[in-house]
Amino acid sequence: MSTTAMTGVQRIADAFASTTKRAALMPYVMAGFPTLAESVRIGEACVQAGADVIELGVPYSDPLADGPVIHEAGTRALAAGANVAGVLEVARALSSSIPVVLMCYANMVFAPGVEAFVERLARTGACGLIVPDLPLGEAPEVLAACESRGLALVPLVAPTTTPERMAAIGAQARGFLYAVSVVGITGERSGLAERFAEVVAKARASTQAPVALGFGIATPEQARQAADAGADGVIVGTRLVRAAAEAEDPAGAVGALVGELAAALAPTDQRSAS
Amino acid sequence: MSAPTEERPLEHRFGPYGGQFVPETLMPALAELEAAWSAARVDPGYRSELDGLLRDFGGRPTPIYRARRLSERAERPIYLKREDLNHTGSHKLNNALGQVLLAKRMGKSRIIAETGAGQHGVATATVCALLGMECMVYMGVEDTRRQRPNVQRMELLGAKVQPVDAGAKTLKEATSAAIRDWVTNVQSTHYVIGSVVGPAPYPALVRDLQRVIGDEARAQMLEREGRLPSRVIACVGGGSNAMGIFAAFIPDEEVELVGVEAGGEGIDTPRHGAPLTVGGRAGILHGSRSAVMQDEEGQIVQAHSISAGLDYPGAGPEHAHLRDSGRARYVAVPDRDALGAFREVARLEGIIPALETAHALAWVMAQPGGELDLVCLSGRGDKDLAEVLGAAGA
Predict the structure, then answer these.
(1) For residue range B167-222, what is the model confidence (pLDDT) as tens digits?
(2) What is the least distance, in Å, from the CA of A63 to any CA of chain B?
(3) pLDDT tens for each residue of A39-72
(4) Which of A85, B46, B108, B124 is most buried (most C-beta within 10 Å)?
(5) Cβ neighbours of residue B283 under 8 Å, at least 6 residues apart?
């Protein structure tokens, strides 16, 4: 099936179903950082290195769910002139080769009107939308706008989420369910893995959609542990954004890291054979 | 009276405003807070402990004072509700006492707060010292500079002051940093928001705790003048002193309610803090939908005010609703007029008002029309001396 004939929800489902890795690899790329053009190159490097889905971050002035690395990258992207039109061009450029899910704070979705925003997003060929400050009770308008265009509105669940909320959120999940691995904001952390299995199991029990684990996952070892815990997808953000900030060749550096993460997610038999 | 006794549900929305736009991680904590406050506000044990502390520790009730020389010059009576005489020098103690007591009931061991002018931080640090709680206050680097005495007070009181070095380094960034801390430490920590902003139930919770200002003032006006004021005037940053005094007068339709925002360098420039006055599209900031200063794409823009407490690009959602319904109106006073009123009130009345409060005083002095005005003198201005003398020298 050609990608253009599929809805965003279908393309994401296809990416999870067809990955040859133990879990889909889902790098986060900040659109416009360090520049719009370079962020396209970073995204392409992720595709080359084995990414299955790209989470494309929209730079925002007040990102409440993000730690200092992604906040700083967003601030610099805005200072470098990133705007919605530019970010959506990045989404369009990457969407021809990989399913793109936009991560965007609520005020930017509501500012032009939900319908207008989601329509613009749909026209880029992007597959879905994550709004980290849009909990279930505030989501109906955005969900309806996404559903009518076949886009996935991906909700988040946290370790603090109660069983009742988990069931309600899981039932609404489209594309995948984003399970936040820690109580906290985005950023690299060590010693997380002992809770992965519990977090994934709770999320899995609430939904038919694939479960992707994110927040705090930075290393190949942690990515492997997430797959061991049963996650269908592994989201890596801050580590890659930090590499883009520190390297002279951001696309090369991010691509190399994504390659290491992809190798860590290779099926066990291949790993033992190599 | 520190809180309403009737068992009506806490509002999540005020017309189209309010709501809960926060990461999922915080949602259970907001539900827990709402349940705790719904129970505490009608619990006689909690109420009596809070009322006792407001009286014996805080010094309530605060008086209303008929400002002699201001009234003479204005040729009409101008009353001041003396929140500056509250312990710690502002209305902020009313909210801090209520919330930290509540946090203790909820079994939280750690308190965080944001502060702009430092008054809320000082009030929270004070109550944490009183109740033996760990306290961390987030404050923009720019505000730690212009409100240095309050940083020193907080540290003396045993709080840790965490400077925030992002963006414009003022109240917006301090609030964002406090929310991020809360997302990370939500199980042990209560976040004492200092104004009628944030996700539900905060705007209703803080209003409930601040309405003691209006309940007292309304009874005091009736006792002293045998009538209600024709106008009630208060400054609005997030808007907690205004919401507190307005709340008691909302049913009295003959009483005009006026909120005074920071005009900064002028509301025809981008450098102000007057989202309610300027109007425009609503936006989402710090967990609720309200009047917000933002660009076309929804990026929050920097506010500007000479007063750190009004230097904020948002305002409480209930204010936005009062504006739309016409029940209250909102105006802006620029930096220079606030500075003028700061000096004038000091000399005329022997009261040095906070720079925030000086905005409300400037408006009332410049706007005749009321037969009987009541101004919320929300805080004292000792903290502002360096800033004012610096501005005068510049």
Answers:
(1) 889 999 999 999 999 999 999 999 999 999 999 999 999 999 999 999 999 999 99
(2) 8
(3) 999 999 999 999 999 999 999 999 999 999 999 9
(4) B124
(5) A107, A110, A111, B289, B290, B291, B292, B294, B298, B300, B314
Asked if the C-beta of B368 comes within 8 angstroms of chain A's C-beta atoms, the answer is no
Q: A246 an active-site residue?
A: no
The residue from B83, B169, B378, B383 that is catalytic is B378
Residue A205 sits at the chain B interface (C-beta within 8 Å): no
**Which of B289, B295, B297 to mutate to test binding with chain A, by most A CBs within 10 Å of its CB?**
B297
Enumerate residues 5 to 34 of chain B having a beta carbon within 8 A of any beta carbon in chain A. Answer: 19-29
B81 is catalytic: no
- Selecting among A14, A38, A52, A55, the annotated active-site residue is A55
Report residue B337: phi and psi, to 5°: -70, -35
pTM exceeds cut of 0.90: yes
Contacts of A64 in chain B (CB under 8 A): 22-23, 176, 179-180, 183, 286-287
What residue spans define the domains of chain A? 6-265
pLDDT of B7: 62
- A6-265: in CATH 3.20.20.70: yes
